[in-house]
Design goal:
Elements (H helix, E strand, L loop, with lengths): L2 H4 L2 H21 L3 H6 L17 H17 L4 H13 L3 H14 L4 H13 L3 H11 L7 H13 L3 H14 L4 H13 L3 H12 L6 H13 L3 H9 L4 H15 L4 H11 L1
Helix pairs in contact: 2-7, 2-9, 2-11, 2-13, 4-5, 5-6, 5-7, 6-7, 7-8, 8-9, 9-10, 9-11, 10-11, 11-12, 11-13, 12-13, 13-14, 13-15, 14-15
Keywords: Signal
Protein name: Tetratricopeptide repeat protein
Pfam family, one: TPR_19
Length: 272
């Protein structure tokens, strides 16, 4: 059985849902990859370890700590940005949006704040509003690659893939070989079921300096959807602790398990 036959219509629907979820994750950082690294500096330097290496319980504790700092001074720009970012990372998108609304009220012309507000809107499902907010943050004379990529991710979720890919390529002109942009571009092709092209871009993204675990998860998904079960698992486990690797594999399996699709893919892989 060929991979093309294995990928049923239900699998295609699953791919679309998974891609939207994963791009929302990228968008929530976008600074994304950048933001996670920056969370260990400045007002969050008090954290005991980098955010990307924290367990779920450690991340929850960090969110509570930064939340208390924000509550003490809701007009503190850095505390608000950091708190909203951590809230999005823990899936609390509506609360993150509420925080960013307040930060934007207090800093209405701040470009970084407007960009973060747009990302919070997108993560909460307010896609048209997010496009407008990100557009206000962008300036033609000093275009920001992070905002271009964020705009592309929103356009993809609206089904406007051609416009989205134009934004990603504009972002790459500003920031060549940036892994988060290449990953978003790959996920754009995954959304339109062009799995081979998606894999090409995601492999390129995963091979760049600074590529993180979320990019490898995207690549694992693209490989798994083509029926290469063992290869997908190997990618999902790379460069992680045993606990993180198992969590990645569990997530990958959940994305591919609808209506027995995981078993179909495993059988197809064994037959190759």
């Amino acid at each position: 059985m060929t991979t093309r036959h294995v990928l049923s219509s239900s699998m295609h629907r699953l791919a679309l849902g998974a891609a939207v979820a994963l791009m929302a994750l990228s968008l929530s950082g976008c600074a994304g990859q950048q933001s996670r690294k920056e969370l260990t500096t400045g007002s969050i330097s008090k954290l005991s370890k980098p955010v990307q290496s924290m367990t779920a319980s450690e991340l929850a504790a960090a969110t509570e700590s930064i939340g208390q700092a924000y509550e003490r001074n809701p007009k503190d720009r850095e505390a608000g940005l950091d708190y909203a970012n951590l809230l999005r990372m823990t899936g609390r998108n509506e609360q993150a949006l509420a925080v960013m609304q307040q930060v934007a009220i207090n800093h209405p012309t701040d470009r970084e704040v407007l960009g973060a507000y747009g990302k919070a809107q997108a993560a909460a499902g307010q896609l048209e509003q997010a496009l407008a907010t990100i557009g206000r943050a962008q300036t033609p004379d000093r275009p920001d690659w992070k905002l271009k990529s964020a705009e592309g991710a929103v356009l993809d979720q609206l089904g406007r893939s051609a416009e989205a890919r134009l934004r990603y390529r504009e972002a790459l002109d500003l920031r060549p070989n940036e892994p988060s942009i290449l990953s978003n571009l790959g996920m754009s092709y995954l959304l339109t079921k062009d799995l081979r092209t998606a894999e090409t871009y995601l492999k390129s993204a995963a091979g760049q300096p600074g590529a993180d675990s979320s990019i490898r998860q995207n690549l694992a998904l693209a490989v798994g959807l083509q029926g290469r079960f063992q290869e997908a698992e190997t990618i999902a486990r790379q460069e992680l602790t045993a606990e993180q690797a198992e969590a990645n594999v569990a997530y990958l399996r959940s994305m591919l398990s609808q209506q027995g699709a995981w078993k179909q893919l495993a059988k197809a892989d064994d037959a190759n």
